[in-house]
Every structure is written in structure tokens, then in C-alpha cells.
Amino acid sequence: MAISEGPCDSKPTVEGALPAGSPQPESLAPAGSAPSALDRPPPTDLAIAAQGVDAHSLAVLRPLEVPLLDPQAVSGLTEASVGQFLVQGQSPNTLASYATATRYWSAWFAARYGQPLTLPVSVPVVLQFIVDHAERLADCDDGQVTTGRPVRLVHDLPEEIDRLLVATHFKGKPGPLALSTLLHRVSVLSTAHQLRELDNPCSYPAVRQLIRMVRTGYARRQVRPRQQMALTRDHLEAILQTCDASPRGVRDRALLCFAWSSGGRRRSEVAAATVENLQDHGARGYIYLLGHSKNNQEGTFDDSTQKPLAGQAAKALSAWLKLADVREGPIFRRVLKSGRILAEPLTPRAVRTIVMNRSQLAGLAGHYSAHSLRSGFVTEAGRQQVPAGEAMKMTGHRNWEVFMGYYRAGDLLGSSTANMLDGPPR
């Protein structure tokens, strides 16, 4: 398991070494004895330091109660500690998706091969997994649809195994996996091999070529993943009309305005929002400090982590904070049907449910979820021709292509190219 090193321009130092010029500690050797390595200023070079550690120094540095470690191997305790860091550094959604993928791989392998799944996995197993779960055109070697013949799609997973996986709740429904799900599960298997430094079957040319061809086949059939509708300003205002003066209504209005106006925050970021990161600027509004996000895993603070909330969004947030008497801890909290406000924060799943339920109450057509707030913010920025750099600073997007896909879609129908037929004659 690889452990990242520090910056490449930093020099290794001996743990406990004092900076050059600092007062040195008193000698640990008896009076009149020859000075040991511990009495001398610490060398700046690791090789020189190693040469200067004599037998006396080793005796002082060697606690008898602590077992020696092998510098060429990772101990069991260290491996467990590293594993805990890896787990704690991942979002709950990522961990859940990895766990689901791992369970499915184990169940599918047991059903297909009659034995437990062990790593490393062979290339033929990965190829079989892909053809078991990806759809292709039947009786069509060249990938073209024959005119006049009905299109028939097939995949190689036997129906008996398919039904068994569904009945045992390892699979949600019978049939092929969605392309995004299939690619994610192959990616999870690849990551498992990489973390254990095993021969990775997913990196072999046969697997990579098959995945490319599967993508191409889906694209030629114009199969696209279902995207959630974007909650642009007009749709958001319709949803806000469903939020009454009840505790849930006041909370939901504040939540929706906060999530949308601060740059289209993800549901996990909304659920994790705390008063401690909220700066009150009086009549001007608030500034929320987003210390951690999907694109800022290490919590680096700069001007892009400051999310302004003004106008309608600030008023809605103030009304909720006053009603719930929120002074510390999570901003958005559970509200019982009776109207009682709990100290318990909302979960990311609850944020998604609020968006879905409110969109249904507003009578909006299409599928909406928490991600609709994010895509809606970017789409609206494109409609209002907000400079892309300013909008990206609010959303925190790192991928320019993903951002521009939403941004450009915001004003497609208003572009000059879309109205060339109706433009002024020459």
C-alpha cells in the first residue's frame, strides 16, 4: 500500500532534531565521559546522521518495552492505522458505494464460479463480468441495426443467476447494469488491486479495449445516463412557494436558498453546514466558509471557500436561525411532524428527499434531486451570462468541461446561432 511522501523539495530530518541555532539540550552522558551523538548538534543530512549514531545513542533511543519494526515491511498495527485514515478520508457516500460494489462482486463471483472471491482476480473473470452486465445488439456482428428488423439487446448473465442475485438483495432489479454502474464496479475492483499492490487485471489491454468498445456501442445506440433536471431560478421560485410558515416550511426554504445561492452545494455539504462556519454581516447577509468539499478534500482555505449569501437567501436563513434558536452546531436540523425542532442534523439523504418532495408539491415535470440545485445554479449562471470564472469560484468546479456543459446549456435557445433563421435578412 503506497503512502504518499512529502514535498519533493523537502529534506528528510531526524525526528526530534532542533532547528539550527537553537539551544542544545544538556548532555545525557555521565560527567567526564566522551560526548555521544546526542550531545552534538543534529546533522542536516540523514546519511551523516546515521553515521553519527553510536552504540550509546542506540541504547538511549531503544525502549526495551517496544518491539522492533521491520523497515522493509508494514506492520499489522500500521496497516490498520493506514486503513483507518483511508476510511476516514472518504465521504460516507463513497464508502457506501464501494461496499455495495464489493458485495456484488463477491456474490456474482460465487454464483458464477462456485467459490469465494479472492484477489488478485484474473483477466478472464473481469471480461466475463463485463459481458454479463453490458448490453449489446443481438445477431449484429458489425454493430449496425438492420433496417426492417426489430432491435434486440442481449447480455450474458444467465437468467437463473440474475433472479438469484435479485432475490438475495445483491441486485436491485433483473437485467443489465446501467453503464455508469458497470464502469464504477470495474473501477472499484481496480482500486482494490492497486491498494494491495497486486497485479491489476483492469489495466490489461484486453479489458481496457473491451470497456472502450462497450462505451462506443452505447454511444452509437444513443444510450445516455438519465440526468436530473436542473433547478433554475424559475423552478426554484416555484418550489419556494410550497414552503409555508411552519417549522418545516421555514427550514426547507432556508435550506433550498442556502444550497442554491451558495453555488449549488452538494447534499453532504448542506447536511454538514454548521453555525461556526457562518459569518453574520448584518443587513448585507452572510458568508459561509466551506472548509471541506469534494473538490477541497484537505480543507485549504482561500477566497473560493467563502460563499456569500445575500438578499432572499440571507433573509430565509435568518428566519430559520431565529425560529430554531440555532446558535451552535448544525444549521439544518430534523423537524418532527409535530413541529418540534431537534438538535439532530439532517442527513444527506434527507436533503435529497426535501428537494424531491418539494418539486413534486410544486408540480414540476421531470426528475429532480439534490444535484438539481448544483446543475441549476450553473445553468442559471449561463442564462444570466455571469462570467464563468465567477460562477466556477462559487461552485468549486475543477473540471472545466463538466462546468461548461451546464453553463452553455443555460442559454442555448437564446444564442445567436439558434435564431439565425429568424434573424434580420441580409
TrEMBL record:
InterPro entries: DNA_brk_join_enz (IPR011010), Integrase-like_cat_sf (IPR013762), Integrase_catalytic (IPR002104), Integrase_recombinase_N (IPR010998), Tyrosine_recombinase_XerCD (IPR050090). It comes from the Bacteria. It holds the Pfam family Phage_integrase. Keywords: Chromosome partition, DNA integration, DNA recombination, DNA-binding. Residues 226-422 form the Tyr recombinase domain. Signal peptide: none annotated. Residues 27-38 have a biased composition (Low complexity). SUPFAM superfamilies: DNA breaking-rejoining enzymes (SSF56349), lambda integrase-like, N-terminal domain (SSF47823). Residues 1-44 are annotated as: Disordered. This is Site-specific integrase. It comes from Variovorax robiniae.
